[in-house]
UniProtKB/TrEMBL annotation:
Residues 1-20 form the signal peptide. InterPro entries: GH. It comes from Sinorhizobium kummerowiae. Keywords: Hydrolase, Plasmid, Signal. This is Glycoside hydrolase. The keyword Membrane does not apply. The keyword Nucleotidyltransferase does not apply. Transmembrane segments: none annotated. GO terms for molecular function: hydrolase activity.
Amino acid sequence: MRRRSLAAALLCTWLAPATSASKWVPVREVSLEVRAGSPLDFSSLLPNASIDADSRLVAGPDGRLAFARAPEQPVRMLCASLAWSPASGGFPDHDGAERYARQLAMHGYNIARLHFVDASLMFGRQKDFDFDPETLDRIHYLLAALKRNGIYWIIDGLSSPRGAYGGHDDRWDANGDLKLRLHFDEDAVAHWSKLQEKFLASVNPYTGTATIRDDALALVILANENGIEFDSVVHERPERPAYDEAVAKPFNRWLSARYGSTETLARAWGDLGADERVETATVRLPANRYADGPRMRDLQAFFVETERASAARMSEVLRGLGYRGLISTYNNWPTVQTALSRRDLGAVTMNTYHDWVGGYSPGSALTQVSSLADGANYMRMIAAARWLGKPFIVSEYDHLFWNRYRYEAGLTMPAYAALQGWDVLCRHGHGPIALAYGEPFPHKKAMLPYAIALDPVARAGETLGALVFRRGDVATSAITIPFAVRGEEDLGEDMQAREPERLTDLALVGRIGLLPADRFDGETGITQPRDRDAGTILAALRDEHMLAAENRTDIASGFYESDTGQVLLDRRAGQLRVSTPATEAAAFSSLREPIDLGLMRIGRADGNGLVALSAIDPEGKLSESRRLLLILATDAQNTGMIFRDSEEKVIEDFGALPVRIRKGYVDLELSRTAARWSVSPVGLDGTVYPPVDSGSGRVAFRLSNDTPYGPTTYFLVEM
């Protein structure tokens, strides 16, 4: 009996339930369509203009995205990730597309990325290029609906490694070798080219124009995440060699052209095997990608040359089909090698994640750590992959569910994207919004990683992002700190080498990015080799009066203030603060003392979270606006979530709807007075409910997200 009791106790510990049910309140909304004219309807605040030749997106003279009619004026694009699959409902019918596109515009989106279109077109198809006609029709209609709502398009030339080959039922998995073969195989390039011709170059019956010639198509990503090194990591298995055999012959040809003889190569490497000869093309690929050495260094140099040639060749295909817009590829891995491969691209695209999750199966795990604790490293990594003078597009980012600190993403990425002067910001998911809870699809039955539409915390972050980033509440830095790049000589013997974190800290103060060494000048940049430190650069910026003497950045204490004075990160306290004329906000993992943001003071909170206050009147100033949108985001989980551990790192069961929001409160005070003020809950669909607090004179109140009308993340302050 005692053994049974012990076993039961151990089982209960292993299958730890989510935090006590009394702390979680179920969401009441079913419809998630934002009501027209509500505080969550940004269509007037952030209007989308019609798309035509004059408003085509181009790279302006400073390398920023701009409209063709005004290339000198940069524009910021908030991106909706449309990564649909049958499991998440697929592409909507015509009525659904109209409603969805209109809702995207109301939420503040002005560009959308269509991801895995090839997989959707070929789902269930047995013959090559035998697109499903209904899916093709739905995609064409959606593109037209997006365009009518002033929403531009980003489209992957290839997302699935299965391409348009028939007879595969694993199109959303990491199987297939098409991405690798694009670099080495003529048949693969021909297949990719035909895919572009049949989809992008075909006339859309709902626009009357071929997609590739449409003014709404702003960017084509040749192939998603198609770097050779990354592809080899994705396909790495214990029983397989580190690199595919398809790489061996091209690498040997490259070595022969570079070194000419075995003897010359042996002198360069020093570790050439007795059975390896350049003349017989028998030089082996590295057996271990993590073993540094000259063999690995040369393999990286080979990858750079190969990838640049591949991108140029595929770009020529698009130009031959009549495409005039921007082209990018190699949109992940911020290594020195991949940066060199991106050097000639017209635009740079990058993907990045904090607390990445690899799947949905029981046993999937994350770390449950804050992104502020490491100084928003996932943002800094890609900041250092940007090439200055080119448009920079974040094609994917997320701080993933079920990490309890993911409220940070809604402030961290929009604020620093704005500070850096990035052009497009795209939080990745099946879709950024849903029209309702309870849709009958496997990936819509509960919140999941990469399913931000159902997550009130992520949705609150996207709402804030529309204001902080797209509206421009946070200003772009006035200083630029270039990282000099010479070329192949910058490659080391470590394939993972990237810009040092001790230097990417500078992205928390001003703009950073890569710059060819022959264009590099001045004392306020990072030279090669990377032997300068961030403190020296900051001192030089102060000496040249580019950074104010009163700037409070103190690297040793983990305290970083932007040159604009609007963004402040305190790593030790786990706090990010934003103070601008239009928005004040704070994300905090702890609140040991009040946070004074200027107009808003956060006096006390009963847990970690995000608090933001934004003006939503046309005046756009907190000091003058009569209507303020207040956001309080804590955490959210599914009903019945089960974890394998008490720290909630390892999932056992995601549970089901309804979504539950963690109760929380904050004490707030505004440095404004009013003859009459009120605070009203706003539902997730934009419905404004009767006030829960009101007064006259000094504006001060305790805000709870557990309202009489159900839990919410939004409130309307009127005065």
